[in-house]
Specification:
The protein starts with a helix and ends with a strand. Strands 1-4-5-6-7-3-2-8-9-13-12-11-10 form a 13-stranded antiparallel beta sheet, with helices on both faces. It is α+β, with helices and mostly antiparallel strands and 226 residues long. The radius of gyration is 18 Å and the shape is globular.
Length: 226
């Protein structure tokens, strides 16, 4: 479960910036089962997104990515797919207005594909409280907050402007340094090209991942260290 934080960041990065396209004509019908890509599930836990209580499951698909595409075309007849790099987000509308989503993350060549599955409403609330535990840039606009009660972890995403990625990281780093967070990647020394950092704090023992994109989106994830 150590890679869950990275996976969550990829979920939000993909949904926020992905290019959406259809692989096939729209028809009626959805997936053939609750696990259409035959993922081997290894984790299921509650998650709260923008105040809505949901459930997230993680599984591994032991199938080549080309075969996964063929399987998607066979199993889903009205789905949309968002692509970002080697990753895919499958969005399947349901009759009650919700969506079943499957995020497929290619971890590394030769390894199974990670599947993150979640049933979500078509539109999440846009009014919610930003957690005080998460840093945020001045005048930034939050659009996503995720809470993982079982692991006491938090994730937040926001849009920002008037900063380069390095300037945004410098601003956030200043706030975190005053709260005894210590950067371990030393990305601030990357000659103005920095976009993210990993921070550690001794008391309470915690880790925080921060990342900024050139499109003006910031991501923050934190959880206790075990």
């Amino acid at each position: 479960m150590r890679f869950c934080g990275i996976a969550v960041i990829m979920v939000l990065a993909l949904t926020a910036q992905a290019r959406v396209f259809s692989l096939w004509p729209r028809t009626s019908g959805g997936g053939a089962s609750d696990n259409p890509l035959e993922a081997r599930e290894f984790s299921k836990e509650p998650v709260i997104i923008n105040g809505v209580k949901l459930e997230m499951s993680l599984g591994l698909i032991n199938m080549h990515q080309n075969d996964i595409i063929i399987s998607i075309q066979q199993q889903f007849k009205n789905a949309k797919v968002a692509g970002g790099g080697a990753n895919l987000l499958i969005m399947c509308p349901e009759e009650d207005g919700w969506q079943q989503r499957y995020l497929l993350i290619k971890i590394r060549e030769g390894l199974p594909v990670l599947q993150i599955a979640m049933r979500v409403p078509t539109k999440l609330p846009d009014k919610f409280d930003w957690p005080r535990q998460l840093p945020i840039l001045p005048n930034a606009k939050p659009f996503r907050v995720m809470s993982f009660p079982q692991r006491n972890a938090l994730y937040g995403a926001f849009t920002y402007d008037h900063f380069t990625t390095a300037e945004a990281l410098d601003r956030i780093s200043g706030t975190l340094n005053s709260e005894e967070w210590v950067p371990i990647g030393k990305e601030q020394a990357n000659y103005g090209a920095a976009s993210g950092e990993i921070f550690l704090r001794k008391s309470p023992s915690s880790v925080m991942l921060v990342n900024f994109t050139q499109e003006g989106i910031g991501f923050v994830y934190t959880r206790p260290m075990k």
